[in-house]
Amino acid sequence: MYAWLWNHLPGPTALRVLICAVALAAIVAVLFIWVFPWLEPRLPFTDVTVDAASSTGLSTAGDRITSL
Amino acid sequence: MTTSVTSEHDPPGTSAPRAARGWAAVGVIGELLITVGVVLLLFVAYQLWWTNVVAERAADQQAIALQDSWSRPPLTPGGGEEGTEKQRRPKLGDAFALMYIPRLSDKVWGMPVLESVELPDLARGIGHYPESQLPGQKGNFAVAAHRATNGEPFRDIDRLRVGDKVYVEDRDSWFEYTLQRDRIVAPQDGWVIEPVPGEPGAKPVERLITLTTCNPRWASTSRWIWWGELSNSWDKATEDVPAAIKAGR
Q1: pTM for the full model?
Q2: Of B127, B185, B219, the CB nearest to A66
Q3: Per-residue pLDDT, A57
Q4: Measured between alpha carbons, how far apart are the two ends of chain A, in Å?
Q5: Bridge partners (DSSP) listed for residue A20
Q6: Residue range A45-55: average pLDDT?
Q7: pLDDT band at A51, cuts 50/70/90?
Q8: Share of chain B above pLDDT 90, in %
Q9: Test the A interface: residue of B36, B115, B129, B196 with most A CBs within 10 Å
Q10: CA of B117 to nearest chain A CA: how many angstroms apart?
Q11: Which of B12, B49, B123, B136 is most open to solvent, judged by the fewest CB atoms within 10 Å of its CB?
């Protein structure tokens, strides 16, 4: 797969390396800026806000103990 | 020997032997698996390192903006000059106080306290349960903060001891709480942040603080709670900064 991509990149080796570096940087940026922040609250590691089922007289919506 | 034999049943035009195509498929799968592994490692780096970088920057900005707003007269009339029992309710998501914990001074020294315990706000500082009381008030000033990732203000909560001080600064006052007891509870134990913890509906007499964070540190299966009581307060207009704060971290 990567060998095929490498062979289909245009230009001399130096240009191919440059294209790869730019593409890698772009992929990492997309992951850090959009994908991971989207994923984070969906995983149990930062699953920090839990609804309490207690009838304590506190406001129902905010009755939680937080956090990781 | 056998691998070089091309089957008669191969479609016309495909010269690659079956076995070779099989190995190519294995290669692609291997590369995909390596890619998944690298992405997972990147996520670990994001979670353990990058969220802290972003959160610490955000907390610094919040603290600077808050101190800046304190240096100006209050925007809405009536704010600031009333007694502590009638403090203005901060707007949801706004920073309204700064917290200093000498024992945890690596992390909690001028850390902003925001009116919210939602995840995006906990990534900018310490969260105040909006249904709980404000600093210095009778009842319970209850806050939550991360213990791992996103700035992790309460990373070292296990180092706190009975008698440790927690300082809270708002526009007009300094409050000193002295920690009294801790307990590990279930995530559903909402009673810990009641005005009188464990006594729903009781009229508060004491002025408490509650710190909540996760336990164990890298999981969220239970919560570590610290309670303390107000032990001192200072009026910023007429009194000096508390000695422990002046001494620095």
Answers
A1: 0.82
A2: B127
A3: 39
A4: 40
A5: none
A6: 47
A7: very low
A8: 71
A9: B129
A10: 7
A11: B12
Q: Does domain B50-247 bear CATH number 2.40.260.10? A: yes
- Give the integer Cα–Cα distance in Å for B139 and B132: 8
CA torsion, ordered B89, B90, B93, B99, to nearest 10 deg: -110
The per-type count for chain B, helices as H runs and strands as E runs, is 4, 8
For B44, which residue in chain A has the nearest alpha carbon? Answer: A36
CA angle B216, B249, B162 (to 5 degrees): 50
Q: Return the pLDDT at B218.
A: 85
Interchain pair B47, A65: CB under 8 A: no
Which residue out of A2, A34, A66 would a mutagenesis test of the B interface target, given it has the greatest number of B Cβ atoms within 10 Å? A66
DSSP string, A6-64: HHHS-S-HHHHHHHHHHHHHHHHHHIIIIIHHHHGGGSGGG---EE----SSS-STT-E
Q: Do the chains contact at A46 and B150, CB–CB below 8 Å?
A: yes
Q: Answer left, alpha or beta for residue B47, where phi above 0 means left and psi between -120 and 50 means alpha.
A: alpha
Distance, in Å, from the CA atom of B249 to the CA atom of B243, rounded to the nearest integer, reads 11
**pLDDT beyond 80 at A64:** no
Residues A19, A9: Cα–Cα separation, whole Å: 8
